[in-house]
Design brief:
By secondary structure, the protein is mainly beta. The chain has one domain. The strands form two sheets. Strands 1-2-3-6-7-8 form a six-stranded antiparallel beta sheet, with helices on one face. A four-stranded antiparallel beta sheet has the order 5-4-10-9, with no helix packed on it. The protein is built from one helix and ten strands.
Length: about 170
């Protein structure tokens, strides 16, 4: 096999690996939220907008809404807490708790794969509060200020926030 064909095969395999979660997310019932950085780079999250009463959130257990992890795509190197997240595709797992929720960024993007904390590249405590008006469905949004995109997750009366900062 020539070097050119080998390079093409590697590139096709690499991009197929990155696109697998995105293609799986196209199966319906999914939502996307985007943060546009000042320099034009983006980060976005795909997730299942599940009904609040239909999901059982177990304290301290990673949550995959609708049975599928949220997917983070980033065109910028990010920080979450003290961890650095390289450009690429990742799975996100909110971790509900009685006090503050946490969020885990995991490098395993294989569709349908079980959560494995050994694959986490970042984990941070989220600021969490109770809101007066309950969200009927899972809502995920970004708030953008400068180089910071604050991920906001609302489900029922829980509201949790985590800052992703572009480098």
């Amino acid at each position: 096999m020539s070097a050119t064909l080998m390079v093409r095969a590697v590139l096709i395999s690499f991009f197929s690996f990155l696109l697998t979660p995105w293609l799986a997310a196209q199966s319906g019932g999914n939502s996307t939220t985007t943060c546009n950085l000042d320099d034009g780079r983006q980060l976005y999250v795909r997730y299942n907008a599940v009904a609040a009463g239909k999901e059982k959130l177990a304290n301290g257990k990673p949550w995959a809404p609708g049975g599928s992890a949220m997917t983070l795509f980033t065109e910028a190197q990010l920080t979450l807490g003290s961890s650095v997240i390289p450009i690429g595709a990742y799975t996100l797992y909110p971790i509900p708790a009685r006090g503050n929720w946490s969020i885990a960024v995991n490098k395993n993007v294989t569709a349908g794969a079980a959560y494995d904390d050994k694959q986490d590249i970042a984990r941070a405590t989220m600021e969490t509060a109770q809101v007066d008006q309950a969200a009927d469905t899972l809502q995920v949004a970004f708030a953008h200020v400068g180089a910071r995109c604050t991920l906001r997750i609302y489900i029922g009366k829980a509201a949790s926030f985590a800052d992703f900062t572009a480098k």
